[in-house]
Automatic annotation (TrEMBL):
Official protein name in the record: Si:ch211-284k5.2
Gene: LOC114667935
Superkingdom as given in the UniProt entry: Eukaryota
Similarity comment: family membership: Belongs to the CFAP97 family.
Amino acid sequence: MEEDRLSTISTDNKKLALKLADILRSKGQVDNWNDPPARSMNAQKRRMELLNVCHENQAILERINKRESDYRRELWEEDWQNTERILQDIARYPHGVPLQQKKGPTKILNEKLEKVEEAEEVESQHD
């Protein structure tokens, strides 16, 4: 029993001697700093303000979604279609026609005149 105790003490002493030798080799610098994390003194208040802002934003979003628009999209679409038609009418080449199939302005005018004449014939037949 005494021998076991002495052997335990000698092994512990060897471990301590090795640790001291490591400390001497490493110049004894501390490797476990206990720096507490920096905490804000007003973190709780900032968190509460953030929650309030989030709730206010949700309320604003709900009010916006419940409100009907004052603009009539159908009118905008009709106006855009009219604008596109005017642009197509004044364009030198029709929109979407590949370069090989483009025609000169006189041929386009002639084709448009033919379409107008056909439309007039259809109208006269219906009257």
